[in-house]
Design a protein that fits this description.
Layout: E1 15-16, H1 18-28, E2 32-37, H2 42-53, H3 55-61, E3 65-70, E4 89-93, H4 119-133
Parallel strand pairs: 1-3, 2-3
Antiparallel strand pairs: 2-4
Helix pairs in contact: 3-4
Length: about 140
C-alpha cells in the first residue's frame, strides 16, 4: 500500500496501483473501486476535496480495494469506458477484475452513468456495490 499525496483524493485511503489492485482483489476476494481522473480536469478537481473529506466514503472504503488512476495510469480497454471516456469516472470491478457495468451512479445523469460530482453519489454507489459484490458491511446495508 502507498499513498498518493498529489492526487487530492485523500491520503487516508489505502490506495494501490491498478496492477496491485487486481492482485489484492483476487487474493482477498474483495471488489475494486477504480477512480479514473485527470490532472487537468475541472470536474475532477471539484470532486477531489469532497471525496477526500467524506467520512462515509472512508468508512465504506474498507470493503474495497481502492485504486485511483490519473492521466497515463488509466487502464486501456473499452470495459473501463462503458458509456464513454468522460472524467471523472468511477467503476466497480468484482474480485476477478471484471468491470460491473450495472453498478452505476443512480443519482446522476443517465447519459453519464459512471460520472460522480459529490460524496453522496459516491457513497450510494459504494453501498450498491457492497450489496451486489459482497463485503463485510453487506448485512448492515
Amino acid at each position: 500500500m502507498f499513498s498518493f499525496p498529489l492526487t487530492g483524493l485523500g491520503e487516508q485511503y489505502d490506495w494501490v496501483t491498478f496492477e496491485d489492485g487486481l492482485k489484492l482483489a483476487k487474493e482477498n476476494d474483495k471488489p475494486m473501486m477504480l477512480v479514473i481522473h485527470k490532472t487537468w480536469c475541472g470536474a475532477c478537481k471539484a470532486l477531489k476535496p469532497k471525496f477526500a473529506a467524506s467520512e462515509e466514503i472512508l468508512k465504506l472504503s474498507s470493503d474495497f480495494v481502492m485504486v485511483n488512476v490519473e492521466d497515463d495510469e488509466e487502464p486501456e480497454g473499452s470495459q473501463f469506458q462503458p458509456d464513454g471516456g468522460y472524467i471523472p469516472r468511477i467503476v466497480f470491478l468484482n474480485s476477478d477484475g471484471v468491470v460491473q457495468s450495472d453498478l452505476i451512479n443512480t443519482l446522476g445523469n443517465p447519459q453519464y452513468k459512471y460520472f460522480y460530482s459529490n460524496a453522496l453519489m459516491v457513497t450510494e454507489a459504494m453501498k450498491s456495490a457492497v450489496k451486489a459484490l459482497g463485503g463485510s458491511r453487506n448485512d448492515e446495508l
